Amino acid sequence: MTEVWILSSVEATPADTVSTVRKTALNAVHRQMGAKMVDFNGWDMPVEYPAAIGCGIINEHMAVRTGVGIFDVSHMGDIRLAGPGALAAVQHISMNDASRLAVGQAQYSALLYPQGTFVDDVIVHRLGEDEYLLVINAGTREKDFSWVRDNTRQFDCAVENLSDDFTQIAIQGPKGVNVLQKLTDADLSAVKFYWVTRGTVCGLSNILIARTGYTAEDGFEIYVPADEATSARVWNEILSAGKDFGIVPCGLGARNTLRLEGKLPLYGHEISDTINVWEAGLDRFCKMEKPKFVGRAALEKAKAAGLTRMLVGLEMTERGIARDGYRVLDDGDREIGYVTSGSPAPFLKKNIALAYVPPESATVGTALKVEIRGQSVGAQVVPTPFYKRPKKSL
Amino acid sequence: MAYPTDRKYTKEHEWIQASGTTAALGITDHAQESLGDIVFVELPKVGAELAAGKTFGTVESVKAVSDLFAPASGTVTETNADLATSPEKVNKDPHGSWMLKITLKNPRELDGLLSAADYERFVAEEAGH
Questions:
Q1: Looking at beta carbons, which residues of chain B come within 8 Å of A257?
Q2: Closest C-alpha among A318, A322, A276 to residue A295
Q3: Contact residues, chain B, for A4 at CB < 8 Å
Q4: Are B91 and A51 within 8 A, CB to CB?
Q5: Model's pTM, two decimal places?
Q6: A66 Cα to chain B: minimum distance (Å)
Q7: CATH of A77-161 among 3.90.550.10, 3.40.50.880, 3.30.70.1400, 3.90.1150.10
C-alpha cells in the first residue's frame, strides 16, 4: 500500500522555498493530541486528529457543519498597511473595492498580476481609519509580502509583515459564536459576518476577533500573541469552553473538504498565476468600476476576448472519486479540461469536484466524464456552491 | 492494537491468512489508521489473477488514494461485496474485513512474509523515522 496524498501543495516559487519545515506555536499541542501531521507548503500541520478522540476528517467536517470545530490556521500570513496612503495602496493592489469598507469591516479580494492572474486571494480587513490588514495564504507568504511591498512604494503608507506575530485560531460552525462568547467580553451578536472587532479573549486584552472563515459556515478567527504558552492556553480554553457543544479540533483535511463544498477557491488549484479572475468565476469580487488597479487592463481585454475555460462544479454520477489533476472528458472521451479539487463531500455525501472546462461544456446538467485510473467515469455539471449554509432563523 | 498471529504481513501493510491453498487478505490496522476514513474500495473481479508484489486494487480515504499490493500470487475466488457499500468497515475491523479470497498459486510464497511480531516491529521502526 502506498499512499498518494491528495492535499497537494501549492507549487513553490524559488522565493518561497524553505530549507526547514516551519511550525506554528501550537505544533507541540497537535502532536500531543495525536494529530496526523503533513508537510503543507513547507509547514508541519495537522491533517486530522485521531479517531480515538472522536475525530478523523469526516467527524471533524460534520462537527463544523452541525456544531463547532477549531483549527490552527497560524500558517496564514498577515500584512498590515497603515498611513495616509493606505487606502490608495490597497485599492491599487487589490481587485475588490476597499473604499466601501467601514472601519471594522472585511471583504474577500485578490491581488493580481498585470496579466489579470492571481498573486493570491486575500481577506482585506479595515482595522482603523487608515489601517488595513491583508490575510494571505501560507504557501504564498513571502511572495505576497514582496509583491505588496514592491507595488505600494509610491503610496504614503507603511507595509509590515506581521505573519509571525499571531497565532490564528478559527472557531467554525453554527455553535462557534456560543463557544467564543463564553471566553470574551466582546458582544459577538453585534459582529456581523465579515466584520471584525476587538475584545478581551481568555484574559488577553485587545484581541482581534473576525467573523470570517474558510468553511462556508458561520465562525470566527481570532489573532492571539504567537508565543507557545499563550497559544496553547487559548487553544485548550476554547476546547474546554466548547465541550458542551461537542467541539473537536480539526485539521487541514476537513478544512479542505469544507471549503470545497462551499466552492471557496484554494491557491494553486482553482486560482493561480495562470488563471484569471473571469475564468475562476470571481467576477463579483472584482470591481471594474474602479478606474485603476493592477491587472485591470488585462482583465478588460480578457473580457472582450471571451472565455476559453470556466470553473464548474461536478458531481460524480457513477462510482468513483475525482481527484485533483484528473482529466475531464466529454461524452466522446475527448479531453476537455481538468479537475482542480476533487473529494468525497462528507456532509453532502456525494463525490464532488471543481474543474476547468470550455464554456460550451459548462452548462448545468451537461454530462461529462472524469478519467479515473484509465477509466471514464460519469459526472455531471451541477450548480455551485455545492453547499450553502442555511439562513439563520431569528 | 495487537496484530493477529494467525496470518502473515507485508511491508506494504497488507495481511494474508492462509488455510491450505486458499487465503483471505486485507489491509492492516496500521494501514487503515494512516489512511483515515475509508470511502472507496476497488477490487478485481472473481477469476482475476494476482501476482505477488503487484497492484490488484485501490483503497481511497477522504484524503488519499492508495494502491493495494498482492501479498501472494493466486486466483480470486471471492470478493467482499460488503465493502462496496460499507467501506468504513475496514476502519472499524481491519483484520476482520477481508477484501479478497484467493487460491494460492504457491503457498510457499508466504514463507517470505512477515510474522505479526516482525510486522509490529517494522511499523514501529517506520514511525520512528
A1: 62
A2: A276
A3: 64-66
A4: yes
A5: 0.94
A6: 19
A7: 3.30.70.1400
pLDDT, mean over chain A: 94
Which has the closest alpha carbon to A69: A290, A220, A225?
A220
Cβ–Cβ < 8 Å for A328, A336: yes
Out of 3.30.450.20, 2.40.30.110, 2.160.10.10, 1.10.357.10, which CATH number does the structure's domain A307-387 have? 2.40.30.110
C-alpha cell at A56: 478523523
pLDDT-derived band of residue B1, with 50, 70 and 90 as boundaries?
A: low
Q: For residues A164 and A106, is the Cβ–Cβ distance under 8 A?
A: no
A5, B63: Cβ pair inside 8 Å?
A: yes
Distance CA A167, CA A163 (A): 9
Helix H segments across A262-336?
A: 277-280, 296-305
Cβ neighbours around A84 below 10 Å, total: 11
pLDDT digits (tens, 9 = 90+) for A122-180: 999 999 999 999 999 998 999 999 999 999 999 999 999 999 999 999 999 999 999 99
Higher-scoring residue by pLDDT: A186, B128: A186
